[in-house]
C-alpha cells in the first residue's frame, strides 16, 4: 500500500538545474522524515539531504549551498532542488520515507529511483 514515486530526473549540462519530486502514499506524510539518497556507478549509496517532520534540514557536504530539500504536506510531496550541477552529481536518486522506533510506528520505505545525468 505504501508507494513513493520519484520524477524529474534527466540529462542536463554542467551548471544546470533540476527539481526532483517524490509523491508518497500510504503513510501519514506529515509525521515522516523524508530523505534523498543517491548512488553512482561503483560507489556506495550516499545520503544527500534530509528533512524532518518538524522541517529541520541537513545536507551532505558535497551538495551544501547547491541543493535544497523541501516538503509540501498538503501534496504529500518532497522536493530536491538541484542547482549548479556537476558531473559528479550523476547518479540514481532515491526517495526515502523514515520514522524512528521512538515514534512507536517505525518504517523505512524507498522509491524506485530516478536517473540524473550531468554531462556536456
Features:
120 residues, mainly beta, 7-stranded mixed sheet, 4-stranded antiparallel sheet, 0% helix, elongated
How would you describe the overall organization of this protein?
0% of the residues lie in helices and 52% in strands. The chain has no helices and eleven strands. The strands form two sheets. Strands 2, 4, 5, 6, 9, 10 and 11 form a seven-stranded mixed sheet that branches. 29% of the residues are buried.
Major sheet description: 7 strands, mixed
Query: What would the average pLDDT be, to the nearest integer?
Result: 96
Low-confidence stretches: none
Task: Supply Rg.
Answer: 14 Å
Content-based structural category: mainly beta
Shape: elongated
Number of strands: 11
Number of DSSP helical runs: 0
Distance between the termini: 40 Å
Order of helices and strands: EEEEEEEEEEE
